[in-house]
Design a protein that fits this description.
heterodimer, A: mainly alpha, Four Helix Bundle (Hemerythrin (Met), subunit A), B: mainly alpha, 3 helices, rod-shaped
Chain lengths: ~220, ~80
Amino acid sequence: MGYLLKTNWWKWLCMALLTYTIIGGLLLPVPKLPILNETIRVLHFHVPMWFGMILVFTGSVIYAIKYLKTNNSKFDIYSSQLANMGIAFGVLGIVTGMVWAKYTWGEPWSNDPKQNASAVSLLIYLAYFVLRNSIKDEEQRNRISGVYNIFAYFLMIPLLFILPRMADSLHPGNGGNPGFNAYDLDSNLRKVFYTAVLGWSLLGYWIASINIRLSLTHQKLENAS
Amino acid sequence: MNHITTLFFRLAFSLLIILTPIVSTAQVEMADNFRGEGKIYVVIAIILVILTGFFYLLFRLDRKTKRLEEEVSQNQK
């Protein structure tokens, strides 16, 4: 994160990747599948939200551990702002998923195991901010929310990747299926999908980096006064 | 007579085999016409305009943050 805060080149990379995602994602040929039809293109926009969320939450939990090791409040700012961005990604992922489900599964919320589990893991992360904002003492707040962050991260993994796979789910990659197979990722989709994941994740890190810099400056001002 | 019916069935069967993939792909409705008419490029152009607009705002926010950081660090010296 320290490196990302100081450099700019990856912002231009993010811009190029997302421009390519829009053009390629809308124009390149896609497999012709019943029910899905053209909505298969949502793959380049809905799925990267979740990939981005997991990448951002991974950054968040790494800095939570670093904070607990060093007690440096800089790492707490990194951790909490990355978690903030992760929730934004998660909400966008759920909402885009609901729109997609409305036209392919029949209704926006069918209480599918994948939908329920992702909603629960988002609520667990929302509780992170409830917890954070309810503690006045700064050091105590940072420590407790750091520990809770680790708990939330390791709850999210079974909720998103293991439980939906043990139940019958409409979502691809679940109900006993392995993650990606030929059905949901052919070579034409791959050409855009990987750049889409990287592009959207970088956009998330970009927004988080601005929030982090503002929080660091705010902290500086508070320490000075 | 028997010879002709087998020939007919053979022909029909091979036609079925050839046509099945064509018919089954034709059944999946895609926006081929929309793409063919070229109007999809308008949609992409509009999305790209919005995307560049947001990137411009993000870069400007980046610059503003940097100016604020410099101002704060100068005031503290």
